[in-house]
From TrEMBL:
It comes from Modicisalibacter xianhensis. GO terms for biological process: glycolytic process; tricarboxylic acid cycle. This is 2-oxoglutarate dehydrogenase E1 component. CDD domains: TPP_E1_OGDC_like (cd02016). InterPro entries: 2-oxogl_dehyd_N, 2oxoglutarate_DH_E1, DH_E1, KGD_C_sf, ODO-1/KGD_C, THDP-binding, Transketolase-like_Pyr-bd. The keyword RNA-binding does not apply.
Length: 939
């Protein structure tokens, strides 16, 4: 509240004006603006003697005296004069410009934007007229440099500030300090600061670089797709200024995400990619790669540049054609870098996300990314969002077909982000918007948006003929001079440089391109390697499923004790207390180990060995099925205690957070985090396994193919609850078949562990083994508490992850004629059926890792069944789902290895083919489950 008083209009310099407003309020509250009426409504009633302890006491005392002395209604005149009424109207006019001046602003370089009538900006709307233009009025909080000024001067200053090349939207922000700060930054210089000649020459040089690269590529590769920046060249000097200014604040890393438009230009002119490398890509020269590779305008890059605050590392994230999906990936990468630096405020690492106008308005992941911006698990200290606003969606889309909002940026208002719409043909205004944006981000650590309003000179891509669908726009564009031409002419006219100087910049840039020289400013040729993540320990490893994940028994018991300790004063809820009491018994050997104990102990051992851990998901703290309870909620005051944060002194970071209700952005965030933190265990847990399909694009574009396309290693782990429990189609299947369909070239691991020891070793293997591959775990539901799904401390201490679990029964191998292969909880149903029916002729084997398929291990498990006649694959999923279609060829190979022709006889036992993943009726579920188990033994 005190901050509001200090920053409000009632500061000492405005005392007389505020008193006049208050007098008007006392006569008729509806005659004053809403914001003042609400403010006055909160003042103490004028009865008795006031007592205030704020710096505003003298003014408020005057309010009190005014209230005591106000005239009664009997025959007294109103306290305010006509002059005071007009003073109030002037204040309303000033506020109107702040609220709606952007609608009148000159932000469209093509002048195609149809002006919207804004009656609030007319004098008559506020009962003012030209006759008042020479009258002096208090300027209130308007930063005019003086307390009073003629109305003519006030209006002219408002027009310059809010209706020229920058349209500011910030009055939707609730925080008064932020609004006042932004008002001061724009109003004090009329949104047009006076830059020195050297600064403006530098801007022209960067504009020349932006245009020069596009001109060169257009002449050398006409009609070739490059998604050029023509029409939006001001983007390059803007990004140059943002990076330099951020560096001046002490920023050490900048991570950038963007789609195609202008990406090649940014790579060459800002990040310093060698022009000769780009030319080689255009020439189609073969690049040595193990994977598929990707088109040039999807590629990432990194480099270091020098700034006033020292060396800054730049990273451009790899991005597929799914436009906005890279935004949360960038946020995850930034958060990982900040965590590594213990940068809790986000001062050292800056995220910049560059968007297209139609995608910014149309893609739901934009909203999800904004929603994460201030949450504990995902905040990064504010993101600079830049919209390269071409004013046309694809090639044929009209703005009114691409959104329902006035601006493409209106979604940003949901987090009260300030939005600066700026005319791309006014580089000075672009520079000012960039400076204010980065200053705001560093000051308040919140998101901010620059809407760079420009155009596309060549259509959606260089192979298009855009006039076929946008005739009026492209008639304008054909005759419209480029931003560089317009700015150069302006500087020549103002005497900043000569025409020859401007031409020399063009010639010099082209010479540098032809010579293959780096054309980015301030590029560091020998970068400081301490700014990079060292991936060398994780490179060059061939696939190996077997790895030693054992752990010293004595130390493990000590850790088990620590992870069960809850301090005095933390009142634990009854059921949770029982879980912890059981875990203490498990640690002491008094109970068999369940899933929650083994999983949590895996985390404890990894922390003890120095590996950071991060787990997020919609119920990760307790686990969707209440098995984990890694976060204990104090029943007395609602505070939380996390035992795994207190395993040992100096332990690495352990983060476990319940996410907001998102899958797409959250999974993308965790992917970005995992690609930047190779030594950590990064886990995303779906509330139900099928929920991942809300993030299918992340699996398709990044998790399954990122290494093949871009060489990006990633050790992300996905826990996807999976299992048929009669709960209907939506919460049974994690769509195992989709992941197996995407598996190739050892790109990821798909596992279905069925014992606590298996999850213990699987999680440890994921981090301890230097191989970095995504891990997809079909995690259980009913097995979390199944009486048979238990393990021993010895199995945790001395074992390792087994890709195939051999039959647990005491069978005579020579009597076995049938082997049933399965994965997941159906094993326990099969084992129960065999015991009940005394079927000693059938062995049941669990394939715990479905990809990479463990052929050798499976062969070892069946080789002793010398009289084997039949192999059956049993699954709970329908015939057209699950592992059957994607894995049967592996099983046939193993069967044929055992006996030629046996693979052809491989049988299937499972639910019939179905459009839905599972039955919606319990009775149907039970019958199907009974039948598929029986079929496995009688196929």
């Amino acid at each position: 509240m005190e901050l509001m008083w200090r920053s409000s209009h009632v500061s000492g310099g405005n005392a007389h004006y505020v008193e006049a407003l208050y007098e008007q309020y006392l006569v008729d509250p509806n005659e004053v603006p809403d914001e003042w009426r609400n403010y006055f409504d909160q003042l103490p009633r004028p009865e008795g003697s006031p007592s205030y302890d704020t710096p505003l006491s003298p003014i408020r005392d005057q309010f009190y005296q005014l209230a005591r002395n106000r005239r009664t209604a009997q025959g007294t005149a109103a306290v305010d004069s006509g002059e005071n009424k007009k003073q109030v109207k002037v204040l309303q006019l000033i506020n109107a410009y702040r609220f709606r001046g952007h609608q009148k602003a000159d932000i469209d370089p093509l002048d195609l934007r149809k002006p919207v009538p804004v009656p609030d900006l007319d004098l008559s709307f506020h009962q003012l007229s030209k006759a008042d233009m020479d009258s002096e009025f208090q300027t209130g909080s308007f930063f005019l440099g003086k307390d009073k000024a003629p109305l003519k001067e006030i209006v002219e200053a408002l027009e310059q500030t809010y209706c020229r090349s920058i349209g500011c939207e910030f009055m939707h922000i609730v925080d008064t300090e932020e609004k006042r700060w932004l008002q001061q930054r724009f109003e004090s210089v009329r949104s047009k600061p006076k830059y020195g000649n050297e600064v403006r020459k530098h801007v022209l040089e960067r504009l020349t670089a932006a245009e020069g690269l596009e001109s060169y590529l257009a002449s050398k590769y006409p009609g070739t797709k490059r998604f050029g920046l023509e029409g939006g060249e001001s983007f390059i000097p803007m990004m140059d200024e943002v990076i330099q200014r951020a560096g001046g604040y002490g920023t050490k890393e900048v991570v950038i995400g963007m789609a195609h438009r202008g990406r090649l230009n940014l790579l060459v002119n800002i990040l310093g990619k060698s022009p000769s490398e780009l030319i080689d890509e255009f020439d189609g020269k073969k690049v040595i790669t193990k994977g598929s590779g990707d088109v040039k305008y999807h590629q990432g890059f990194s480099s270091n540049v020098m700034t006033p605050g020292g060396e800054v590392h730049l990273a451009l994230a790899f991005n597929p054609s799914h436009l906005e999906i890279v935004a949360p990936v960038v946020e995850g990468s930034v958060r990982a870098r900040q965590d590594r630096r213990d940068d809790t405020d986000g001062d050292k690492v800056l995220p910049i996300n560059v968007h297209g106008d139609a995608a910014f308005a149309g893609q739901g992941v934009v909203m999800e990314t904004f929603q994460m911006s201030q949450t504990r698990a995902y905040k990064t200290g504010g993101t600079l969002h830049v919209v390269i606003n071409n004013q046309v969606g694809f090639t044929t889309s009209h703005p009114q077909d691409t959104r329902s909002t006035e601006y493409c940026t209106d979604i940003a208002k949901m987090v009260q982000a300030p939005i600066f719409h700026v005319n791309g043909d006014d580089p000075d205004a672009v520079l000012h918007a960039a400076q204010v944006a980065i200053d705001y981000r560093q000051q308040f650590h919140k998101d901010v948006v620059i809407d760079l309003v420009c155009y596309r000179r060549r259509g959606h891509n260089e192979a298009d003929e855009p006039s076929g669908t946008q005739p009026m726009m492209y008639q304008k564009i054909k005759s419209h001079k480029s931003s560089r031409e317009l700015y150069a002419a302006r500087l020549v006219e103002e005497g900043v440089l000569s025409e020859d100087d401007a031409k020399a910049l063009v010639e010099q840039y082209r010479e540098d391109l032809l010579a293959g020289n780096h054309v980015a400013n301030a590029l560091v040729k020998q970068p400081n390697t301490e700014l990079f993540v060292d991936w060398n320990p994780y490179l060059g490893h061939e696939w190996s499923g077997d790895f030693d994940t054992s752990f010293d028994m004595k130390r493990m018991q000590q850790l088990a004790t620590r992870m069960c300790e809850i301090p005095d004063g933390v009142q634990v809820q009854r059921q949770v207390a029982k879980i912890y009491e059981d875990r203490r018994k498990m640690q002491a050997g008094g109970m068999a180990l369940n899933w929650g104990f083994a999983e949590t102990l895996a985390y404890a051992t990894l922390l003890d060995e120095g590996h950071p851990i991060r787990i997020t998901g919609q119920d990760s703290g307790r686990g969707t099925f209440s098995h984990r309870h890694a976060v204990v909620h104090n029943q007395k005051d609602g505070t939380t205690y996390v035992p795994l944060e207190h395993i040992r002194e100096g332990q690495p970071r352990f983060t476990i957070r319940d996410s907001y209700l998102s899958e797409e952005a959250v999974l993308a965030f965790e992917y970005g985090y995992a690609t930047t933190m190779p030594n950590a265990l990064i886990v995303w847990e779906a509330q139900f396994g099928d929920f991942f399909n809300g993030a299918q694009v992340v699996v398709d574009q990044f998790i399954s193919s990122g290494e093949s396309k871009w060489g990006r290693l990633c050790g992300l782990t996905m826990l996807l609850p999976h299992g048929y429990e009669g709960q209907g189609p939506e919460h049974s299947s994690a769509r195992l078949e989709r992941f197996l369909q995407l598996c190739a070239e050892h790109n990821m691991q798909v596992c279905v562990p069925t014992t606590p020891a298996q999850i213990f070793h699987l999680l440890r293997r994921q981090v301890i083994r230097p191989l970095r591959k995504p891990l997809v775990i079909m995690s259980p539901k009913s097995l979390l508490r199944h009486k048979e799904a238990t393990s021993t401390l010895e199995e945790l201490a001395n074992g390792r992850f087994q890709m195939v679990l051999e039959d647990q029964g005491k069978l005579d191998a020579s009597k076995v004629k049938r082997v049933v292969l399965c994965a997941g909880k159906v094993y326990y149903d099969l084992a129960a059926y065999r015991a009940e029916n005394e079927r000693e002729d059938t062995a049941v084997l669990r394939v715990e890792q479905l990809y990479p398929f463990p052929k050798d291990e499976l062969f070892e498990a069946i080789k002793d069944y010398t009289n084997l006649e039949q192999v059956v694959w049993c699954q709970e999923e329908p015939l057209n789902q699950g592992a059957w279609y994607q894995s049967q060829h592996h099983m046939r190979v193993v069967a044929d290895m055992f006996k030629e022709g046996l693979g052809r006889e491989l049988k299937f036992a499972g639910r019939p083919a179905s459009a839905a993943p599972a039955a919606g009726y319990m009775s149907v579920h039970v019958e199907q489950q009974r039948q598929l188990v029986e079929d496995a033994f009688n196929a």
